[in-house]
Structure formats: C-alpha cells, structure tokens
Write a structure and sequence with these properties.
3-stranded mixed beta sheet; 445 residues; Peroxisomal Thiolase, Chain A, domain 1; alpha/beta; binds coenzyme A; 9-stranded mixed beta sheet
C-alpha cells in the first residue's frame, strides 16, 4: 500500500504581535501570570493592515511551492480550512489560487478547489479529504494543497480576547511523503453542541468554560473510538501527542485526561497506586457526581506524579512552543503543534524516523478526531526548512493603543484607515475591494 501523508509544511504568522503579559494584562488590570502560567500564552499574532486570511494562506502556500520546486500543474486540489471566511459563496481557495497565479506561468484551472468548515477541526478534515482523494487513485499523480488560515479575533472585552491569534499553515499532501504518513485508523467524538459559534457574525458567541468541557468530553470519545479500531493505546506508543491548542492551558487538561485513560489497567496504574491509589471505577459509585469528583481528585494527584510529569515534559510540552508565542490559529493550531514538536526533536538531534505521533484535533460545535502519524525518513530536512522563529522575532510589537486600532481595522463592521506597521517584501498584499465587493490582491516584489 502506498504511504500517503504530509510531504511538507510552511507556516506564515501575522506580522504584528501583542505581548499579553507586558501590554495586555496591565491594561486589563490583571496579573500577567494569568496569561503566562494560567493560559500558558506569552503573545498573540495579528495581521498587519495589508494582511488577511488570503494573504497569509497564499504566502504560506507560495513559500511551500517554491521550496519544493512545484508548479500549479503538480497540484490537483486546493482546500482551504477556515472559520474566518468573508464570503458565503466564493471559497477562499479561489482567491489563494488567484494570488498564486500572479507569480507562476501556469494556472490552477484543473485543480479542484473548496473550503472546509467545522470550526478548528476543518484543517484536519481537509487533510482527510486529500488523503482519501489520493488513496482512491483520483489524483493523477498530483498532490493536494491544504491551507489552514484564520484570523481568530474575539469581541473586545470577551474573555476569549486573551486567546486571539492569526496565521496560516500550508501543507502538501502526497504519495510517499517526506514528513509523516497518516494512519487509516481514526476515531471520532462528535455531538451537536453549543459552545462556540458564529451565526452570520464575525466575532464568536462563546461559552468559554463550556467549550473547555466539551473539548475534553469529545476528545475522550474520540480516543475510545480510535482504540476500537487501532487497539489500546499506551503512553509509550507516541513520541509526541500534538493536540488542538487554543491555548496551552487547555492542552494541559487534555493531556492528563489522555494519560489517565491510557494507563488504566496497565502496570503504570498499578505502580502509581502505591502513591495515589487506583483510578476510581464508575461501577463503585452510586452517584455520577461523586464519581466525577473522585476522577477530578485522581487527575489532580496524577498530574503531580513523577511518571506523569516525565511523560508530559517529553511528549506534550514540546508541542506548545510555537502556540505560546502566537496564540490561537483555529484551523492551523493542531498543525503548528505537530510542527513545534518535530522542530524541537530536530534541534535536539533526535532520530524520529519510524516513530509515531498521536494527533488530537478538535472543533467546537463539536467534534474531536484522533489518528496516528508515522514520521518519515525525510522529516528532518522538511522541518529544518521552517523559519517560524525568525518570523516571530521580526513581528512588530504593538502598544495597547495600536492593538485597539488593529482590532478595529480587521473588524468587518468598521472602516478605518491604518498605516502598515511593516513593509511588505516578496509577499501577497490586500489592496482593497472591487466593483462586486470582491477583495483584491497584489504580489509585492
Ligand atoms: N497565576 C496563575 N494562574 C492563573 C492566574 C494567576 N495569577 N490567574 C488565573 N489563572 C489561571 C486560572 O486558574 C485558570 O486556570 P484553570 O482553568 O486551570 O483553573 C486560567 O488561568 C484561566 O483563568 P480564568 O479566570 O479561567 O480565565 P477567563 O475566565 O478569562 O477565561 C477562557 C479563560 C479560556 C475560558 C477564555 O479565554 C475563553 O473563553 N477563550 C475562548 C474559548 C476557548 O478557547 N475555548 C477552548 C476550547 S476550543
């Protein structure tokens, strides 16, 4: 069977930065540690005046195609995953293809283009669509371009304002990939939930605390479903476990839940029982609430054990390093978590080829999906080509007043002029709107 998976990836961050501890927290009258320790976030990325979901996605895709020496004829489909689209009919992928056609001689007229929507999980769903298209033999030797691009803005004053972000991840899905092969086995946890939604409005209606509960409940369901096809998982199965990362604090909660699930009935649970007892079993409780309280207590104790801490530091912490600096990228979040982990492995000189990743994606509304990926021989060269650290360091550091202007500039209900903070250089830029209210873009040399 031919291996299918992610051949290469490129990341593009919004070119502005809001420092949460230094700039945001003092204005809100809050302790900076709520951000750095509680949520686990240092900064959020924002788009400059000339940036939006199209420019960020096109810039990531252009860099990826250039690096891989690809032309439009090599691409058979372009899928964009986003929850920040500005058009209910024309997909963002057509705009991105239009941008790319400005810089290539060929066009994408024979590529299938679409847009995927299911909150933050749409990026992973687009990977699935590409995987299935190739496995079905419909790709004619061509690859798929998947672009996850979002400007994650919340209404001013909403608690979600602390977890904003903007950026794009472009991924090339191919046969015999260089980075990771995706597993055929998948698990889903999906239910009709009202935790985060945007009913024809730009900024989300969000019940933040509820969304955290729903994330955990759906993720647990997805893990059970995954195990029903792939067999029981063990903490040592995976070199890294990248989760959807709206903010690192959310992943801390998901990780302890996953670890508890994976060690149940194993020698690890038995060993730990001397220190913290066995896991509460539902059948030992008459009342569901009592059981849930006992589980919470067990997980609190579990998260302080050496076994757990060692697993967390090795398997989860490395997935958070990019997210911590850029905030929530919605559809791109789980994909920057994978990149962050592989980046750290490359920096540490680890040999990961053949090792597995357990990837946990989530989208509000709500659905979680878990699949495994096998790291391929060419992974290191692909990951070493990323320049996200340089991009992050080059971002313009906003004052609070400037942040307020940037938020207004990207608010669809406001029309404000704002000078660029950065100078475009070899990138696509937004130039205004046309006669049918379409958005217009140019490539700046
Ligand atoms: N030092 C250390 N930790 C601190 C702290 C301090 N000074 N102040 C607060 N914290 C901790 C809190 O205890 C909490 O951690 P916990 O959940 O482990 O208890 C965390 O920081 C966040 O503080 P909290 O008061 O709960 O923040 P909030 O009420 O402003 O809301 C969210 C946080 C996540 C609910 C909010 O940002 C949100 O709605 N985000 C968007 C929705 C989202 O991303 N959902 C995730 C699922 S997709």
């Amino acid at each position: 069977m031919t291996a299918v998976g992610i051949d290469a990836i490129e990341i593009w961050t919004g070119k502005l930065k809001l420092d949460l501890a230094e700039t945001f927290a003092p204005e809100k009258g809050e302790d900076p540690e709520k951000y750095t320790k509680g949520l686990g976030l240092h900064a959020s990325s924002f788009p400059d005046a000339h940036e939006d979901i199209v420019t960020m996605g096109a810039n990531a895709a252009h860099r990826l195609m250039d690096r891989k020496g690809l032309t439009p004829d090599d691409i058979g489909r372009i899928d964009v995953a986003t929850e920040s689209a500005f058009d209910n009919s024309k997909p963002v992928s057509t705009y991105i293809a239009g941008c790319l056609e400005q810089v290539y001689d060929e066009d994408f007229h024979h590529a299938n283009k679409g847009e995927r929507k299911f909150a933050c999980i749409a990026g992973t769903q687009s990977l699935d669509d590409a995987y299935n298209w190739i496995k079905a033999g419909r790709n004619r030797g061509r690859s798929a371009l998947v672009v996850a691009t979002d400007t994650a803005l919340y209404a001013r004053g909403d608690p979600g304002e602390a977890t904003q972000g903007a950026g794009a991840v472009a991924m090339l899905i191919s046969e015999d990939p260089n980075l990771v092969e995706m597993s055929a086995e998948q698990g889903y946890g999906s239910a009709d939930e009202t935790d985060f939604l945007k009913p024809n409005q730009q900024f989300p209606s969000v019940d933040g605390k509820r969304s955290m509960q729903v994330y955990l409940a759906r993720m647990r369901e997805a893990l059970e479903d995954y195990e029903s096809v792939a067999g029981a998982s063990h903490p040592e199965d995976f070199a890294y476990v990248p989760f959807h990362t709206p903010f690192p604090g959310m992943v801390r909660k998901a990780a302890v839940l996953a670890y508890r699930h994976m060690i149940r009935g194993t020698p690890i649970e038995e060993e730990l029982a001397e220190e913290i007892g066995f896991q509460p079993r539902e059948e030992d409780f008459e009342d569901r609430e009592e059981y849930e309280e006992a589980i919470r207590d067990y997980m609190d104790e579990l998260s302080s054990t050496d076994d757990y801490r060692e697993w967390y530091d090795a398997t989860i912490e490395p997935t958070l390093s990019i997210s911590r600096e850029v905030g929530n990228w919605y559809t791109g979040s789980v994909h920057i978590a994978r990149a962050a982990a592989l980046k750290q492995a490359a920096e540490e000189g680890r040999d990961l080829a053949g090792r597995k990743l357990g990837v946990g994606s989530y989208g509000s509304g709500a659905q979680a999906e878990i699949h495994a990926e096998t790291v391929q021989e060419g992974w290191k060269d692909e990951i070493e080509a990323l320049n996200i650290d340089e991009q992050n360091a080059a971002r313009y550091d906003l004052s609070f007043d400037e942040y307020e202007n940037v938020h207004d500039r990207h608010n669809h209900d406001k029309t404000i002029e704002m000078e660029d903070f950065t100078v475009p250089d070899g990138e696509f830029v937004f130039t205004g709107t046309g006669r049918m209210n379409e958005r217009l873009y140019d490539y700046v040399e």
